[in-house]
Amino acid sequence: MFCHRTKFFVPLVMGGLMEIFGYYGRVWSHTVPQDMGPYVLTLILSLSAPAFIAATIYMTLTHTILSLNAERHSPISPRWLTFVFVIADIICFCTQVGGAGMQISISEPVRRSGRVIVLLGLLFQCITFCFYILMVWTIHRRNSEAPTAFTMNPYLPNWKKYIYALYFLSVCILVRNIVRIAEYVGSHTGPMQKTEAYIYVFDASLVLICMVVLAVLHPGRLTKAATALRATDRDNMDGLLGKC
C-alpha cells in the first residue's frame, strides 16, 4: 500500500486488523467464557471485517478500468461504479454490525431479529458480489474482444492476471458468506456452531488468502505503470510539438 501509494488499500488494512482483533477476542473468550466483552468483540469484528476488504476489491476494478483506458467497456461509468458498490458495502456493514449488536440483548426476540438482520446483510453482500462478478466479466470480455490501444502497450503489466485475481477474490468472499449464512440458518447445536474448524477454514483462511493475493498481485503496480506510461507519452508529444 505504502510503496504504491494506493489509498484504496486503506480499507483492506483496516479489515485485516479487525479480523485479527476479532479472532483475538475469540481466543480471549475461551479464557473468560462468562465475560460478554470478548464475545461481542469477536461477533462484531469478525462479521464486519470482510466488508472493508470488499471495499478494496470493489475499488480495484475501477482503478483497473482507468489504468487500461477502458472506460468505454464499462456498462457503468467508473466513477459511479465505485459509488454503487461502496454504498452497497456500507449497507452490508451497517446491517451486519446492527444485527450483531442486537444479538447481545437479553431479550430472545431481539436476538432472533438480530440473527435475521445479519443473515439479510450476508445475503445482500452475496447478491452484490454476483453483480460485481458480472461487471468484471463484462469488462474482461469486451476488452479482450476490442482491446484499447493502451492495453496493447508492451510496457504495461499483463492486465488479465489482475482480472483473474478479482474473480478469485470474489469467489473467496462469496464462499465465506455462504458458510456464514449456513451458520446463521443452522441451530445453536448444529455442526457449524459446535465445530470451530469451519470458521477457521472458511472464514479466517479465506480472508487471509484474499489479503495475500492482493499483496502479491497489487493493483497499484498496474496503476503506477499506466501513470508512468501516460507521463512518457505526454513528454514525447511535448517534444514533438517543440520541434514543430
**Strand tally, please?**
0
Give, in order, the helices and strands. Answer: HHHHHHHH
Unreliable runs? 237-242
What's the rounded overall pLDDT mean? 84
Overall geometric form: elongated
Give the total of domains: 1
Beta content comes to under 5%
Largest sheet: none
Please estimate the helix content. over 70%
By helix and strand content, what is the structural category? mainly alpha
Specify the number of helices: 8
N-C termini distance: 42 Å
Radius of gyration of CA atoms, rounded to a whole number:
21 Å
Verbal overview:
The chain is an all-alpha fold. It has one domain. It is 79% helix and 0% strand. It contains eight helices and no strands. The protein is elongated, with a radius of gyration of 21 Å. The two termini are 42 Å apart. Residues 237-242 have low confidence and may be disordered.
